[in-house]
TrEMBL record, chain A:
Signal peptide bounds: 1-18
PROSITE patterns, alphabetized: PROKAR_LIPOPROTEIN
Gene3D superfamilies named in the record: Bordetella uptake gene, domain 1 (3.40.190.150), Periplasmic binding protein-like II (3.40.190.10)
Organism whose genome encodes this protein: Marinococcus luteus
Coiled-coil features, chain-numbered ranges: 298-347
Family under the similarity heading: Belongs to the UPF0065 (bug) family.
Low complexity: compositionally biased ranges: 30-41
Ribosomal protein in keyword set: no
Name of this chain's protein: Tripartite-type tricarboxylate transporter, receptor component TctC
InterPro entries the UniProt entry points to: BUG, Bug_dom1
Pfam family, one: TctC
PANTHER family hit by this protein: BLR1237 PROTEIN, TRICARBOXYLATE-BINDING PROTEIN
Automatic annotation (TrEMBL), chain B:
Pfam families associated with the record: TctA
Transmembrane helix is among the record's keywords: yes
Organism lineage string: Bacteria, Bacillati, Bacillota, Bacilli, Bacillales
UniProt domain DUF112: residue ranges: 13-436
Record field: transmembrane: 12-41, 53-74, 101-124, 130-151, 195-214, 327-346, 352-375, 387-404, 432-450, 462-486
Origin species: Marinococcus luteus
Key word Transmembrane helix present: yes
Protein's name according to its UniProt entry: Putative tricarboxylic transport membrane protein
InterPro entries for the chain: DUF112_TM (IPR002823)
Keyword field: Membrane, Transmembrane, Transmembrane helix
TrEMBL record, chain C:
Transmembrane segments: 18-36, 81-101, 108-126
Keywords: Membrane, Transmembrane, Transmembrane helix
Pfam families assigned to the protein according to its UniProt record, in alphabetical order: TctB
InterPro entries: DUF1468
Record keyword Membrane present: yes
Upper classification of the organism: Bacteria, Bacillati, Bacillota, Bacilli, Bacillales
DUF1468 domain residues: 18-135
Keyword Transmembrane among UniProt keywords: yes
Organism: Marinococcus luteus
Identification of the protein by name: Tripartite tricarboxylate transporter TctB family protein
Length: 356, 498, 135
């Protein structure tokens, strides 16, 4: 049945396109408009969801796609995910109307980028209405080549201690999730082992996941930031030696189901005396002055979706998990999280001193 | 049949539809293969994996091939990778050989397509490990090698051409450098709009389409000379496979270059046809005729940009790394279905792998059939009065520019700014093709230059001491430059003597 | 950034300036070379007066040219102001009639049908069917 539907829709698209030259085309008269006052529908009949990533292969797009695909049914509207990239998404949001016809979907980089100075102050959390939390990518991890002489992040530091002539260089991206988790590792090492060890940690600052992988294969970096979803393929048996990788640790509180990767906490990595935990979470950002009823409708729809097993399954396929929080809870949570991270960012090393 | 155990007639049907829509999207200036795939990506969610791939591969092949239609008939590259198709394609149209040019183009396309899919099928895993051996130094040198074409296509003034190319690189650097998120070369007040710099597509169609329309407006929209030609009576417009006689090496070399450049992760698709065209010019028996409407140049550009497709799929399917921006979106299709593409993809999904290869065969055949039989109609575009076709082109360019980054109004302004520049440039001696090639390759050149230095800690000798690949590339670069210089001296002498 | 013999001091804070500096250098060198070349050419044919530089071609169509520019510049704001369909239909009508060059029954009909057909087709196919975000 689904096949038939797809065929019909693709077919009609093709036909319409062909008819393009001759022009005129009949409407289908299926104008939908939201029922006013109801708590699970919203007014705009088209909600443009701009996301903070310009890639359609990344976790932001994947989770946004799964969420909006389901939400649009509940909200009785049409949601379109536009992968415009972080800066453009923020700038579109600044100019957007308050009716919720343009909303944003992003992850922790939304505030980390402001804290690290990569995004303008105008984009800080206070200037938006924080919407519901949607999902987590628990696979936030570090990796190295399969034949590296250490198996965890903590061991990499011990290895540096045992081999005073060696250095370790870590590939990461500035201003985002990978920098904050690197900072956690670095600050811990500095506190526990002192600067004679951390002086031998270098960074290789680059962009996308592909660039980081390539840096590992080129020998430009010894350790790279990655994720279970994106990098697991390279760690499995049967992968050729020159591209094979292994995980050195994940930053979640608990181990990720089905993967034998020690967490940072297990390895004893602490910052300010507390276990270092960082989960990459995805949430909606709405215009500051959006109507209460819109947020409520989105909250209600999200709550319904969080119970949906199909949705959970869609996320699990790529090792993401459902992480539902209504908007007020999400706001409180993110503000607190940001405060914790602020203290790390304040103590964090300047990349300028670490880049080789 | 074994093939039909993996793909169903439904897959074939979707693939044909994909090709059909792709051709039209590719043929509309302002719409690209990448955009076509991005539009249909969410729709594939309800499809089976193989069917979804059939549709998307169809769109990819159709989109890349469709670009040759406006390139040849209107001198507007429908997609960035058909830039070099305009060099010889449009002059052929001006000579009244538009229909022939289209047929040469699609024949070259299908040859390039089949060449690359054969390479993909037979050597994918082996080539993948070759591809990751290319370090940032090698990639930088390949970009430089592609840039040497600027020297060989410079018309009239070698220094003028080089200046135009470097100016293009300069403009491409405006924006924020991704590694350290620092802005540079920013005109004051435009920081927000230009964070990512000027987008390629609006720049491309601005320079070609809008610039051309302004120029025509200046001249009062008079019918072009070739619009008055009666095509039926011109013998020259006949297409036959004889045109390919003597072009075997050219076709093979260009397909190979296309596949190879496509295979390198992070080296953009447009570089494929640029590099191939430049080599065709270097090896040609009469390089001075290239750019004046020689099928030779057309064959080179079109076989290379279809060669690119199979090439770009190699790192995608064997390493999980996209070879160009279009395959980067294709990854999304696999993830939607929960299929991981990575080093184990082929061995753990043998059926899907065969399905992809068969789909590519089907898509190339579909492309050829659909294009071949619709050429008669396409070719008539040339005869539509300018006062009707130009407004439509402007409309499509505006819509396409707005849509390329999913709805950014500044991209429409970019289109108009570069439209005006496209009108002014030829008048003040800036050469548009050279400028564009610089613009297309500028950011990649910078990325790999800086990456190389990051790796070496600032040691410049790294560009010469990185092993055999780099040395071969240096020889090619120098050869290409020396050749371009000799060629330019020769043509100067020719001009002086006539 | 200092360049010692074959080494460059690169620092993370200045990654973004390394390449632009090289390119600006190359641009200046090429510009100087261009000027020298032009200068030598001028000296060589001293006796002949150089042709004065003309920006516009002879008998250029001022009306069509400037009207095109004005219409192009007004189109994007009109899109934001009136929405896609009204702005595009109006723009398409004006530019078609401008290029047709005459104002009579036939050209008006052609312009109206061209503007309606293409605007509506684009709006329907791309905006509705493909769900692309339109201006």
């Amino acid at each position: 049945m689904k096949k038939m539907m797809a065929l019909v829709s693709v077919g009609s698209m093709g036909f319409m396109l062909a008819a393009c030259g001759t022009g005129d085309s009949g409407g289908q008269g299926e104008q939908t408009s939201g029922q006013e006052g109801s708590s699970t529908t919203i007014d705009p009949n088209r909600v443009r969801t701009v996301i903070g990533s310009s890639s359609t292969g990344g976790d932001t797009y994947q989770t946004a796609d799964a969420a909006t695909r389901n939400l649009e049914e509940v909200l009785d509207t049409n949601m379109q995910v536009d992968a415009v990239g972080a800066d453009r998404a923020f700038s579109e949001m600044s100019g957007a109307q308050d009716d919720g016809s343009t909303i944003m979907y992003f992850h922790d980089m939304a505030y980390l980028g402001v804290e690290y100075g990569s995004f303008s102050e105008d984009y800080e959390l206070e200037n938006w209405t924080i919407g519901p939390m949607v999902a987590t990518n628990p696979g936030n991890a570090f990796l190295t080549s399969a034949d590296a002489p250490y198996d965890t992040m903590a061991e990499s530091i011990e290895w540096l201690e045992d081999n005073p002539d060696e250095t370790v260089s870590v590939a990461l991206e500035e201003g985002g999730v990978s920098e904050i988790v690197f900072d956690g590792y670095y600050l811990w090492a500095e506190e526990e082992y002192g600067s004679e060890i951390t002086d031998r940690i270098e960074v290789y600052v680059t962009g996308s996941q592909e660039d980081k992988n390539q840096a590992l294969w080129d020998g430009n970096a010894d350790i790279i930031h990655g994720s279970i979803g994106a990098n697991n393929e390279y760690t499995e048996d049967g992968v050729e030696d020159d591209i094979k990788m292994k995980f050195l640790g994940v930053t979640t509180e608990e181990r990720v189901d089905g993967f034998d990767i020690p967490t940072f906490a297990e390895q004893g990595i602490t910052v300010d005396g507390e276990e270092f935990v960082f989960e990459k979470e995805f949430f909606f950002l709405l215009p500051k002055d959006i109507d209460e009823s819109y947020t409520t409708a989105l909250d209600n729809a999200m709550a319904e979706l969080a119970e949906d097993e199909e949705f959970a399954e869609a996320l699990n396929k790529n090792t993401y998990t459902v992480n539902h929080m209504p908007s007020d809870e999400a706001e409180e949570h993110l503000m607190e999280k940001r405060e914790n991270m602020q203290s790390i960012i304040e103590q964090a090393p300047d990349l300028n001193d670490l880049a080789k | 049949m074994l093939a039909f155990e993996i793909i169903t007639p439904f897959t074939v049907l979707l693939c044909f539809l994909g090709v059909f829509i792709g051709i039209i999207m590719g043929a509309i200036p302002g719409m690209t293969a990448t955009m076509a795939i991005a539009i249909f990506l969410p729709l594939t969610y309800v499809l089976e994996m193989v069917d979804s791939i059939g549709l998307l591969i169809g769109l990819y092949v159709g989109g890349i091939s469709g670009g040759l239609v406006p390139a040849i008939l209107l001198n507007i590259p429908g997609t960035p990778s058909s830039l070099c198709t305009t060099f010889d394609g449009y002059p052929m149209t001006q000579k009244g050989e538009g229909e022939k040019a289209l047929k040469v183009g699609i024949t070259a396309s299908i040859i390039g397509g089949f060449f690359s899919l054969t390479v993909l099928y037979l050597f994918a895993p082996f080539l993948a490990s070759v591809a990751i051996d290319f370090t940032s130094v090698d990639k930088f040198l390949i970009i430089v090698f592609a840039l040497t074409i600027i020297a060989s296509i410079s018309k009239g003034s070698l220094i003028g051409g080089l200046f135009s190319g470097v100016l293009g690189i300069f403009i491409s650097l405006i924006g924020r450098f991704p590694d350290n998120n620092e802005m540079r070369l920013m005109p004051p007040g435009l920081e927000e709009q230009l964070v990512y710099g000027f987008s390629l597509l609006p720049v491309l169609i601005g320079l070609f389409a809008v610039g051309q329309i302004l120029q025509e407006a200046e001249e009062g929209m008079k019918p072009a000379s070739h619009q008055k030609l009666d095509l039926k009576k011109t013998e020259k417009n006949k297409f036959s496979l004889k045109i390919f006689k003597g072009q075997y090496i050219n076709t093979a070399r260009s397909s190979l270059i296309g596949t190879f450049v496509g295979m390198l992760p992070g080296v953009g698709g447009s570089a494929a046809s640029i590099t191939a065209y430049s080599q065709t010019k270097n090896f040609s028996k009469h390089p001075e005729r290239l750019g004046t409407g020689e099928p030779e140049g057309l064959i080179s550009s079109e076989s290379a940009n279809n060669g690119l497709i199979g090439g770009a799929l190699i790192p995608l399917l064997t390493l999980g790394i996209p070879g160009d921006s279009t395959t980067a979106i294709l990854i999304g299709a696999f993830l939607l279905q929960g299929v991981q593409v990575g080093p184990l993809f082929i061995s753990s999904n043998p059926d899907l792998w065969s399905g992809i290869v068969i789909t590519l065969v089907v898509a190339n055949i579909a492309m050829f059939i659909l294009m071949f039989f619709s050429i008669k109609y396409f070719a008539k575009i040339v005869f539509i009065p300018k006062y009707i076709i130009f407004p439509i082109i402007v409309l499509m360019c505006v819509v396409g520019s707005y849509a390329i980054n999913s709805g950014i109004m500044f991209d429409v302004w970019t289109l108009l700014i570069f439209g005006v520049l496209g009108y002014i440039f030829p008048k003040i001696g800036v050469q548009i093709p050279a400028f564009l090639i610089g613009f297309i390759l500028g950011m990649e050149a910078e990325k790999y230059f800086v990456d190389s230095l990051k790796g070496s800690g600032g040691d410049l000798t790294v560009f010469f001491t990185q092993g055999p690949i780099a040395i071969v590339l240096w020889i090619l670069i120098l050869g290409s430059l020396v050749y371009a210089f000799i060629d330019s001296q020769k043509s100067k002498k020719n001009q002086a003597s006539t | 950034m200092t360049i010692a013999f074959f080494t460059m001091d690169i620092s993370f804070n200045e990654y973004h300036l390394i390449f632009p500096r090289i390119i600006i250098g190359a641009l200046i060198i090429l510009a100087v070379a261009l000027l020298l070349q032009k200068g030598i050419q001028l000296l060589k044919r001293k006796e002949k007066r150089p042709k004065p530089f003309r920006f516009f071609s002879e008998n250029y169509d001022a009306k069509k040219f400037y009207a095109t520019l004005v219409l192009l510049v007004l189109y994007p704001p009109a899109l934001s102001l009136f929405g896609f369909l009204p702005a595009s239909i109006l723009f398409m009508f004006l530019i078609t009639i401008l290029y047709a060059g005459q104002f009579n029954k036939k050209t008006i009909i052609v312009s109206i049908s061209n503007s309606l057909a293409s605007s509506i087709a684009v709006w329907y196919v791309f905006g509705q069917l493909f769900d692309i975000t339109l201006p």
